[in-house]
Amino acid sequence: MEMKYKSLKELKEALDKGEIQANPANGDCLIVDSDSIYFYLDDECVFRMHPSDLLEEALDLLGIPWENA
C-alpha cells in the first residue's frame, strides 16, 4: 500500500503547514508500536515506518551523527 507521506520529513511538513491536524482523541496521531510507527488520519493510514528507520531519519533531520552498533 502506498503511503501518502513516505518520510518523517514529509509528515512533519504536512503537520507544520496545517495540511493535516493531529487529534489524539480521534486516533489521528503518531502511534508508536514495538515493530511499526504509523499515523492514522480519519481511519486511513497515511504514514508507516519501522521504528529503527524513523529513529535514523529523525537523527539525520536533527543533524546528529550516528552509526549502527
Short description:
The chain has 69 residues and is of the alpha+beta class. The chain is built from two helices and three strands; from the N terminus they run H-E-E-E-H.
Radius of gyration: 13 Å
The biggest sheet amounts to: 3 strands, antiparallel
Indicate the percent of residues in helices: 25-40%
Terminal-residue CA separation: 31 Å
Approximate strand percentage: 15-25%
Order of strands across the biggest sheet?
A: 1-2-3
List the helices and strands and how they pair.
Elements: H1 8-17, E1 30-32, E2 37-41, E3 44-49, H2 51-62
Antiparallel strand pairs: 1-2, 2-3
Task: Summarize this structure as a short list of keywords or feature phrases.
alpha+beta, 32% helix, globular, 3 strands, 3-stranded antiparallel β-sheet, 69 residues
Written overview of the protein:
- This protein is of the alpha+beta class and 69 residues long.
- It is 32% helix and 20% strand.
- The chain contains 2 helices and 3 strands, in the order αβββα.
